[in-house]
Amino acid sequence: xxxxxxxxxxxxxxxxxxxxxxxxxxxxxxxxxxxxxxxxxxxxxxxxxxxxxxxxxxxxxxxxxxxxxxxxxxxxxxxxxxxxxxxxxxxxxxxxxxxxxxxxxxxxxxxxxxxxxxxxxxxxxxxxxxxxxxxxxxxxxxxxxxxxxxxxxxxxxxxxxxxxxxxxxxxxxxxxxxxxxxxxxxxxxxxxxxxxxxxxxxxxxxxxxxxxxxxxxxxxxxxxxxxxxxxxxxxxxxxxxxxxxxxxxxxxxxxxxxxxxxxxxxxxxxxxxxxxxxxxxxxxxxxxxxxxxxxxxxxxxxxxxxxxxxxxxxxxxxxxxxxxxxxxxxxxxxxxxxxxxxxxxxxxxxxxxxxxxxxxxxxxxxxxxxxxxx
Length: 374
Known about the structure:
Largest sheet: 8 strands, mixed
Mean pLDDT: 92
Oligomer: single chain
Helix content: 25-40%
């Protein structure tokens, strides 16, 4: 049965569903979801680009930061590296390639855990890891407990299901997905949970009549869960988003919910309703909400900065200056660095949040140029 038909049947049986429920089905239905039905969705042949698609340079720089964190933790004999939303393992492969070459002691200590909801992507991980397959300690749908090391997630939170709300003169309303003669439509009703109003109060935001916004309760829940799973170590979150004061303001009064296909945003305020399971659905991340959830869960905030400053702090310029040999390969790395660093592109739209638990308040190399969010 097509996913659209399944959703229509669900609505007919239960009544309108929240946008969060719709997105969860559209992206993560076990066999029909956008992410679960394919081994890989990004890249030139996919629907969008991530930092990983630019080439191995991003993973190389991340490996440098992970190595430093291992040393800060006391260089233990076993150090868990946990990638959430790991896909088929491409980023992990880039990280381990660089670690084996540049930091062999850290590489020997690394125990890799790849967390991925798509069974198809999990099945491809060992082949993707290639010579590093023996480092794979686990490949699961969810995080496991008792970790000492680093949990990192590159563009996970923006793909978690969000509640869509709108402020009306009579108060806050939640958008729901209904059906009319077999077509998916939207309707409004009271908020499905009091947690939505509490969220706005916690981040210090309010909406004016007519403004729409997304509330990512799932991101808060994921951060809290990460804190419970990690006994000691670090959490790295890389995603695109804004502080609450900007995200819930006139500049984003129509919300940020978007759908992507073939490297283009589909137009229309309700385009995300079309073709469930066939397109990516995403919303900008509230960095304030993520930070507050992390701190409430026992993390200390260690850094919050643009990807540009993260990579510069880790010495990307110095690495490029050392590139020798093949001039074509060197040119490709310089072009990759430009894509990762350029203001207005990934360099400024992608933010890096780093949290620590049980590691004190270390100065991280990535933040050596300051913690700047633009």
